[in-house]
Each structure stands twice: as structure tokens, then as C-alpha cells.
Design brief:
This protein is of the alpha+beta class. About 40% of the residues lie in helices and about 20% in strands.
Amino acid sequence: MVKKEKINCDNINYAVYKIDDWKNDYELNIIGTANEIPVTKPTLEHMLKQMDHIRQSVFEIQSKEVNGMIGLAMQFNPKLASRDIDELIEQEQKEFDNIMEELNALELKTAKDVIFLDTDEYVIYKLEYDGHTLSPKPYNEFAKKHHLEEIKRLKELSGERFVLEL
């Protein structure tokens, strides 16, 4: 009998998401523009740290300091450059409040639950430390497929300025 490989839902070395739509629409918050919804507590905690780190970064745009979420959104979506920066700042704060409300309301799997890798229900990334940061690597086949779709989506959104190769 072949043993199915599985991970425990309390394992901090993996990020596990379901592919679904957020309740709200997001244009600037890169967490909200992706359709990856965390399903485990370690994944949620990783996502919150990531978002906090991005928002703490500072960019100067149109002679104003903005957080990293706005800076990254403008890199991925050049159409945002024509928008009023004060409106973008206000919108980013509203999106942040909305995504936090959604994240805080998630029903997560328990620490005792397990997820089998051969699923197409969950996108699973293995988190590997690259010397500076944790780098998510697609771990199951569903994640590999989804990862390629996300790269294509970001390339299209950025007008092909997104440089990751497929």
C-alpha cells in the first residue's frame, strides 16, 4: 500500500490556502488581489507578518511618503500612476481595514487536522529560508499550476513588466 504524504495543519514550514474570492474587492492590497485564502493558523500568521512588513516599507511618490502596499500596487499596475496619491492612500487604508476584518473572521483548520498533498482543494507552499526571508515554493501539483496562473495574471496586469519567467 502506498502511503499518502500529508502535512499537519500546525506545521509552520508550510503555507496552505484555498482558492476562493474575498468578500470585498481589492485593487491595492496585494494579499486581497490574489485569490489565496489562508486555511491554517501558521499560514494566517505568516500572511499577517508579510502584510505588516510590506506596509512598513516607505516609498516616495508624487512628493509624498506612502506605504509599501501602495508602492507595490503601482509597480504591478501602472494604471494606478495616473490616480491622485491622496485617494490611493485613503483607498489603501480602507482595503487594509477590510482585509483585516476578513482575515480575522476566517474559520481555520485545527492544529490536529491534516492535509494530504495530492489534493486539488488546497494550494500548498513549502516555506524555505533563503538567507534573508522566507520564500514560498509550490509544494503540491495544484500549487504549481496555480503559481503559473498567478505569474501570467501579474504579467498581464503589469503590462508585461513583471519579469518572473514561467
